[in-house]
Design brief:
The chain has helices at residues 30-50, 60-69, 85-97; strands at residues 3-10, 17-22, 101-105, 108-110, 125-129. The chain is of the alpha+beta class. The longest helix is centred in the first third of the chain and has 21 residues, at 30-50.
Length: 138
Amino acid sequence: MNQLSLQLKRLGKKKVKTIDVVLDSTPKNLKQLIGACVRHEVKKYNEKREGDIVLSFLNATEIQEQGETGKIVFGDLANKTLAAEETAIENALLAHKDGLYLVFVDDHEITDLEHPLNLTQKSVFTFMRMTFLSGAYW
């Protein structure tokens, strides 16, 4: 299985974003899954920065979709710095260790990076970003 469908959630938010990820190989454990997902996203990120945009414009559908999030942008990129793949993977693994996000496979939380994954075509992967509350409660 080389194509995964990932659900991205934020604590306290109802909206779930789903992205499709094509992997070079099937991950055997959580550490490999996180690494493969980060590699995929770094590649997409870097491709955006390397491409030349001659003329940026939005069509009506894009304006409507962006309007639902409350921010409409043309997509021009001022920052052309490329992401370093290994640094991004290290950061993602550290963020998981620190509890900044949780990973669920078929509604079961996986915490151990070396936990073996038994994946099927119907496996559902969910990454949930945790949001911390700030301030004091008296």
